[in-house]
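Handout, section B. The chain below has 178 residues.
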Amino acid sequence: MRIISGLFKGRRITAPKKLPVRPTTDMAKEALFNILNNQYYFDDISVLDLFAGTGNISYEFASRGTEQITAVDADYGCIKFINETADAFDMSISTIKSDVFKFLVKTKQKHTIIFADPPYDFELEAFFKIPDLVFKNELIEDDGLLIVEHSKHTDLRDLKYYSHSKSYGGNMFSFFTK
């Protein structure tokens, strides 16, 4: 994986093969950040990266100037890799090793953008829980956005707060707003 833009543009990051991850493709990530670039000043926002995996999305936000980034993942190896990479690049990414659903119930901190990239083979009900918990617990700022990455075979259009989706190859991003 590589960082698409910003201070660390072009830097390649190689995650250990043993991590249980499926990083967002560079093509999909570039398209997503082109959308976000037209809506937000990255140095003025707070980001929550759920199911952070390799930290791919967190690094992209950090490279573009975001300083308030929290990455949450249940896997110790993923958290360790994100911490090591963030330290090597001097990025301000806070990590939390936790089950995402338990974290969403406990946290009170609001964010401008919440990005969730759960395993594509999740049960549909698990995908439904993400926006439900985010909006029920008021974790999004008024001008904020929840983005859920999923397979094109998963349909989230009927969920409350759903705004729209964008498809890039086999990847799909569903956007949710207040």
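Note. The helical segments are 26-37, 56-63, 76-89, 100-106, 124-136. Compare this with the example in section A.
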